[in-house]
Amino acid sequence: MRWSKVLCTFVLLLFGGSGFAQEGVDGLRAWPAPDHTRLVFDLSGPVKHKLFTLSNPERVVIDIEDASLTTSLKHKNFGKLLKGIRSGVHNQTDLRIVLDLDEKIRPKSFALSPNDKYGHRLVIDLEKSGGSSHPVRRLNQVERAREVLVAIDAGHGGEDPGASGPSGVREKTVVLAIARKLAGLINKEPGMRAILTRDGDYYLSLLKRVEKARQANADLFVSLHADAFRDSRVKGASVFILSNRGASSEHARLIAHKENSSDLIGGVSLDGKDSLLASVLLDLSQTASNEASYNVAEQVLQDIKKVGKIHKYKVERAAFRVLKAPDIPSLLIETAFISNPSDERALVSSDHQYKMARAIKNGIRNYFQQYPPPGTLLAERQTYVISRGDTLSEIARQYRVSTDAIRHFNGLSDNTIRVGQVLQIPGGG
After folding, report:
1. How far apart are CA 366 and CA 8, in angstroms?
2. Which of 80, 205, 338, 411 is most exposed, with the fewest beta carbons within 10 Å of its own?
3. Which among 349, 243, 224 has a CA at the least distance from the CA of 290?
4. Which pLDDT value is given to residue 377?
5. How confident is the model at residue 179, as a pLDDT?
6. Euclidean distance between CA atoms 232 and 92, whole angstroms
7. Could you give the CA distance from residue 87 to residue 41 in angstroms, rounded to a whole number?
8. Which region among 33-42, 69-78, 358-367 has the lowest average model confidence (pLDDT)?
9. Three-class SS state of 420
10. Do 96 and 15 form a contact (C-beta atoms < 8 A)?
């Protein structure tokens, strides 16, 4: 009896031992974006892998050593870059995954260790080979005055959901809704235009968000978030700017730590970062940009106060990595405490989202009316003194702008004007 047990053990080790050592690929999540797609494979433990590409047709091959597939690789939406995905066994013990592509791409892969949200993961990033979808605007090539450009950054996204409220509302969802409303309102403002760093549920590293704003030559970078705290009674909005000398309060330090950890949750590969992006992290010569950041943050804070409760009644400072563009005034807005039940209900309300977006827009507009960047339509504004018999429609026709533009620019609620009143006329044409 004893020898039979030994023999059985030997047979299992000889023929089935590799199976015991295998790790499982237990899940797949896909986060398609306009210019890239991220695939995240959930693993039962750490693995070694190799990645290479094949052409005619275009494919990416991932070999995962001593691994087996324990889930379906079918996914509803892989994005435009990925036609399909299939798997098989390679070298008897390895798992081979093949990604069928529509075009040539640049693949990157890296492993992530467990954190408080996920276990071991293998991340595959598929990026278009054609470069950024936001070409750099060369000012010396622009023949006419340009619009003021505001980069709106909806925090978190995709693999990184951000904070969650008591009923499960996710930060990444509500801040994207506010960001879209804010972009729509800014685009209605004469002489102003907005871009979104992300316009869907996908992950962007903090550096990528800054890179998109810099490539577009944005005049302002606004990052939107929804705070969370262990005490659910804490509520209200706050406005932050960058500090290179430490946080202005313990609250600011904790918030900066939470937002900076997004790259740890979402996963960032540090390979291939060029010197330009490295300088974004290292360049601390931001005196002029920080002064402008504080001025616009003050304007925005004053308008947010009209919407609801404020958590901090002054502009806070902390070392937010996403605000470290050396040449763009930048601010971060915690729109509410999603961990507070009443704030959470407000954040999912379309009406409240609109009011918050409108308040932020008003603050931004008021700042740029006072400090229009050179070469912009807002910098071309003129003044007009009202005379007897003038009407707003005739003044608008004379300067080739709309009456709505003049009203917005001067904060008028209707077309009523008075003799001697001085109007600011926005650049039009």
Report:
1. 81
2. 411
3. 243
4. 81
5. 97
6. 53
7. 13
8. 69-78
9. coil
10. no
Tokens of 29: 């999540």
Place of tokens 């695939």: 39
* Least confident piece of the model among 100-114, 116-130, 141-155, 225-239: 141-155
Cis peptide before 57 (omega within 30 of 0): yes
User: Scanning the structure block, which residue is given the tokens 């590293």?
Assistant: 205
Q: What span, in angstroms and rounded, lies between the C-alpha atoms of 79 and 72? A: 18
Confidence of residue 279 (pLDDT cuts 50, 70, 90): very low
Question: Is the model's pLDDT at 210 over the cut of 50?
Answer: yes
Q: What single DSSP character describes residue 141?
A: G
Supply the pTM of this predicted model. 0.71
User: Token pair of 281, please?
Assistant: 């992290």
CB 124 within 8 A of CB 108: yes
Sequence length of the chain is 429
Gyration radius of the chain over CA positions: 27
Confidence category of residue 83, pLDDT binned at 50, 70, 90 = confident
Of the CA atoms within 13 Å of residue 129, those in its CB half-sphere come to: 8
Task: Look up residue 138 and give its two tokens.
Answer: 């060369």
* Structural element, H or E, at residue 201: none
Hey, is 224 helix, strand or coil?
A: strand
pLDDT value at 286 more than 70: no
Question: Quick one: tokens of 373?
Answer: 């960047």
Please state the rounded mean pLDDT for residues 43-61: 92
Alpha helices in 305-428 (DSSP H): 341-347, 350-370, 392-399, 403-410
- Provide the token pair at 230: 């262990």
Instruction: Give phi and psi for 428, each to the nearest 5.
Output: -135, -120
> Which pLDDT score, from 0 to 100, does residue 320 have?
65
Residue 386 to residues 131, 417, 420, 422, Cα–Cα distance (Å)? 51, 8, 5, 6
User: What is the spatial distance between Cα 168 and Cα 162, in angstroms, rounded to a whole number?
Assistant: 11
Q: Are 290 and 242 in contact (CB under 8 A)?
A: yes
* DSSP conformation class of 310: B
pLDDT for residue 272 is more than 50:
no
